Amino acid sequence: MNSEIEQGSYRGLDSLILVNDRLRAEFLPGYGSKLASLRDRSRDREFLFQPPPDAELCCPGYGADFAAFDASGFDEMFPTIDASFYPAGSRAGGELPDHGELWSLPWQGERREEAGEEYLQFQVESRLLPCRLEKRVSMQGAQLQLEYTLHNRGQEEVEFIWAAHPLFQADPEMKIVLPREVKSVINVEDSNPHLGSWGRRHSYPLTESQLTGEKMDLSRVPGPERESCRKFYVAEPLERGYCALDYPSSDLRLELTFPAEKVPYLAVWKSLGGFRGDYNLALEPCTGAFDDLYLAHKTNRSAVVAAESTYEWWLNFNLAELE
Fold first, then answer.
1. What is the CATH number of domain 4-321?
2. pLDDT by residue (tens digit) across 297-311?
3. pTM exceeds 0.90 for this model
């Protein structure tokens, strides 16, 4: 199944489309290289959360309020998720914008070819740090492959959080699959009374609601709830870079794989109606925890790229049949 690259238009913005017989992936270079759509062509199934049917998109300005713009698809978070401050070195105290800076910047995007296979190459320069992030995107059969290289051209090491932020369409039939060694998670969302205050630890997958005392299965996706969001992190760094979503009615599993030695943290976000009324969820492999780069620094949970060096990692989306 050789992949091909097409030029397209998505909600009024120019797009680059990588497609083969099984998958179709559509990227928006001018909008942070957002992966706007990921579709299983054999089942005609869209995985990523989509904007309202008639919505047109407009590109945000640098440092925009994330909540004021499109919240769909897969955006890149760097060097923080929450608005924060740079923690160390000559840039200590510098303000970092909401959801980082790269989601709101235009990226350079182009098609390339190697050994007869076409792929997409994206890159963008940080405005705050002496860094360039490159992303190579290719497709093999039922797998979408994203390879990242972060270049630090400065004379000091750079601390950062990179987080994948793919928002998936939610459905109560779905099941979240985490590695078997995951036994506990940490709540980082104060607005949901079921999980209690920020920092409360819960057993996984079964825990007890702090509101009702009833058993809760954190691997399931509840139906829509008014003004409800939930987010938790796996409590310990991962031994295996893996998570997945099961779709029982389709006998399908969507797997995310990544190198745990480079991307050791994982968060799960569930918007059940509490964020703009959206109903979706995200599996968020990330290089640091817990959303805030300054906090990650203080708790020794940030990633570091050495001066005049690179930091490399990858993220794969793979379709598999349920056993």
1. 2.70.98.10
2. 999 999 999 999 999
3. yes
